[in-house]
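Input (structure):
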């Protein structure tokens, strides 16, 4: 009898231990969304559960609304495919098929938007007229755009109309090894916009230095929604690879040569804080901080996760993540719950601050490069080959 009781207790203890150690599952599921494109999405920007935008590289052509109905034959329509309106004066002017408009989708950029949580996607109105390459919104109406000409635009009506806030200046690009034209004058190489609210934002680009070229870097800050942009002297050793701003004061930037920088005054001053010895695989694809000290990164070369508890001075690799998981983006809801996405559509979830990670079957097997949550119940991730997925709690 005693032996039977002991056996029962051992079995009960084993079951209890296994249950206690089992990684908690997230309460929701991921579903694939159809954008009807094969675009390569490099960022996703949602301001609530329904309204969001996708910034993309694309090779799709673009046909302005009305062209198909106005053109009398298919040959003319095909010749005009890819054109966009250059400005309002040309809206009703006849086009010469032999002289296509320079504003074409095959310049490589496209913005899609949704107002129904990703069920349907449409091109941003007039994006080709304004030559928009990417957008950043803080609510359904207020947003900013970066143009192909590197100008900064502002909208207050959800992107229906835009005004120029800042026109790009000129920089001298050095072309090393080009004896005939060693210096080329180009627009400032602004590449990214980042706003955390309707007032505070940053813009940056350039800074590349290699054996082929030297491109002057530019870094801008604004505290009034872009009415005024303050340019600071470019403080980074190389071009910016990735950036994250926690609030109006605290931000982190990772450069292409693996250096990590931090600001505590809204970007006016930056301090290099890369842990030593410097490691080449610490060029991060994604940075996320939950407060001024605790943060996470995903490494570009190995795709591995790392955590800091001292603001980025030192990092601890997540050794229990298997090598086959090459993660590209990370997002934490709080200090405990976090998500990471990556190659082959891989999805990882932690309920306990990274102590344990659970794998999720992805609805798409394409590389996911960006992730954002609007609250604990709804999140979105996007990546290559038109891949967009949505996380939802409760169906």
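Output (sequence):
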């Amino acid at each position: 009898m005693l032996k039977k009781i002991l056996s029962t207790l051992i079995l009960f203890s084993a079951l209890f231990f296994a249950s206690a150690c089992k990684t908690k599952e997230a309460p929701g599921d991921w579903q694939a969304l159809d954008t009807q494109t094969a675009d390569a999405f490099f960022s996703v920007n949602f301001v609530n559960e329904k309204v969001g935008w996708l910034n993309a590289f694309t090779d799709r052509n673009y046909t302005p609304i009305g062209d198909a109905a106005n053109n009398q034959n298919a040959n003319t329509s095909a010749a005009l495919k890819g054109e966009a309106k250059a400005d309002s004066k040309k809206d009703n002017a006849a086009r010469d098929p032999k002289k296509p408009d320079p504003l074409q989708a095959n310049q490589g950029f496209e913005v899609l938007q949704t107002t129904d949580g990703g069920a349907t996607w449409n091109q941003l109105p007039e994006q080709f007229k304004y030559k928009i390459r990417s957008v950043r919104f803080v609510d359904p109406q207020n947003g900013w755009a970066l143009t192909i000409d590197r100008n900064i635009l502002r909208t207050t009506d959800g992107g229906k109309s835009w005004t120029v806030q800042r026109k790009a200046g000129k920089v001298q690009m050095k072309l090393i090894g080009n004896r005939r034209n060693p210096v080329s004058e180009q627009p400032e190489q602004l590449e990214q916009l980042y706003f955390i609210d309707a007032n505070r934002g940053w813009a940056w680009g350039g800074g590349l230095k290699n054996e082929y070229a030297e491109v002057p870097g530019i870094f801008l800050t604004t505290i009034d929604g872009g009415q005024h942009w303050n340019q600071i002297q470019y403080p980074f050793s190389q071009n910016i690879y990735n950036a994250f701003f926690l609030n109006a004061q605290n931000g982190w930037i990772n450069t292409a040569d693996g250096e990590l920088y931090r600001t505590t005054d809204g970007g006016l001053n930056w301090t290099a804080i890369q842990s030593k010895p410097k490691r080449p695989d610490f060029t991060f694809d994604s940075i996320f901080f939950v407060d001024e000290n605790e943060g996470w990164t995903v490494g570009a070369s190995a795709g591995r996760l790392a955590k800091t508890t001292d603001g980025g001075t030192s990092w601890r690799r997540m050794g229990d993540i298997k090598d086959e998981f090459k993660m590209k983006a990370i997002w934490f809801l709080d200090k405990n719950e976090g998500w990471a996405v990556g190659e082959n559509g891989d999805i990882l979830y932690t309920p306990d601050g990274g102590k344990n990670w659970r794998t999720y079957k992805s609805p798409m097997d394409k590389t996911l490069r960006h992730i954002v949550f609007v609250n604990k119940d709804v999140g979105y991730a996007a990546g290559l080959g038109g891949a967009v997925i949505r996380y939802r709690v409760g169906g």
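Notes: The mean pLDDT is 82. Residues 64-103 form one domain.
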